[in-house]
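Good morning,

Attaching, inline, the backbone tokens for the sequence recovery test we're adding to the shared suite. The designed sequence is right after.
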């Protein structure tokens, strides 16, 4: 699956015309130079004045770009000037990709002369009032609000996985969310497999270095009962022990392998943090076990993410 297929799942009423627009934006961004900033600003302010109420994610990725929802952006009091400047900079620094455009048109059997505006069906059901900016302009605060907004819009009790490759900021995000929302966070680092069970065959499995049976048993217990404590594993001491557990409405299962197929059926929603490799490596270099990440853990993670297509199987990409 790819980002286009992800949009088709998220927006099931999407029309071929909307897919054409999606492909065009992936290849060309906003597709025009901005010469009159005042007109762009006036058009933005006029559109804002006619917005109605509608729950939306803060942004959706479109290849190297992101569609920023005006409704949600304003709901959380982000700067209009920042959005306008990001929009202009993104428009004026586009690297057009004709080959990508032609390739995707052929793959999805779309005529390049097809209308480039959203279909009436899409407009009616999904209210696409957004501005397209390059994903480099997505700030850490916007990433946080993307997750925050997604969680507060859940109307029922659920377990949400929070995935992302090592160094992507999963733990930081989960801890920050726990300080501002009434949620419980479980860390996958507490469910690694004991050394005594790390056989060659087991480690050759996808996610074989975690105790996925313990994770499954724990999630079943959380869903069916009201446990006051859960069993976790201490890697340093190589022993299991119990910790207090607060079974709240929203449970965040944070960490690599939190969408593992052995217990994926118990996960109600999935979030994925898409963090650039350069930034991830900069963060990992600050850790004492950097070489183990490079030589051991990253290859195992990459196998998991690539073979199971975790990113585009997620409900939300941060």
């Amino acid at each position: 699956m790819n980002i286009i297929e992800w949009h088709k799942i998220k927006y099931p009423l999407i029309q071929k015309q909307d897919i054409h627009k999606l492909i065009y934006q992936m290849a060309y961004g906003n597709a025009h130079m901005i010469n009159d900033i005042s007109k762009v600003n006036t058009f933005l302010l006029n559109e804002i004045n006619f917005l109605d109420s509608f729950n939306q994610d803060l942004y959706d990725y479109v290849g190297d770009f992101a569609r920023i929802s005006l409704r949600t952006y304003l709901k959380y009091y982000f700067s209009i000037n920042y959005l306008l400047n990001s929009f202009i900079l993104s428009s004026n620094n586009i690297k057009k990709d004709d080959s990508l455009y032609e390739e995707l048109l052929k793959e999805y059997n779309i005529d390049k002369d097809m209308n480039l505006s959203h279909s009436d069906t899409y407009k009616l059901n999904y209210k696409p009032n957004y501005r397209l900016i390059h994903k480099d302009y997505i700030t850490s605060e916007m990433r946080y609000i993307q997750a925050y907004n997604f969680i507060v819009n859940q109307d029922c009790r659920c377990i949400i996985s929070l995935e992302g490759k090592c160094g992507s900021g999963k733990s930081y995000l989960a801890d920050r969310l726990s300080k501002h929302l009434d949620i419980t966070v479980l860390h996958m680092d507490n469910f690694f497999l004991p050394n005594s069970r790390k056989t060659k065959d087991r480690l050759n499995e996808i996610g074989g270095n975690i105790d996925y049976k313990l994770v499954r048993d724990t999630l079943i217990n959380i869903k069916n009962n009201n446990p006051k404590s859960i069993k976790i594993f201490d890697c340093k001491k190589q022993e299991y022990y119990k910790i207090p557990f607060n079974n709240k409405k929203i449970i965040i299962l944070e960490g690599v392998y939190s969408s593992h197929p052995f217990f994926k059926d118990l996960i109600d929603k999935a979030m994925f943090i898409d963090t650039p490799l350069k930034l991830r490596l900069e963060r990992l270099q600050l850790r004492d076990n950097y070489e183990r990440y490079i030589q051991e853990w990253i290859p195992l993670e990459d196998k998991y993410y690539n073979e199971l297509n975790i990113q585009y199987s997620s409900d939300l990409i941060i």
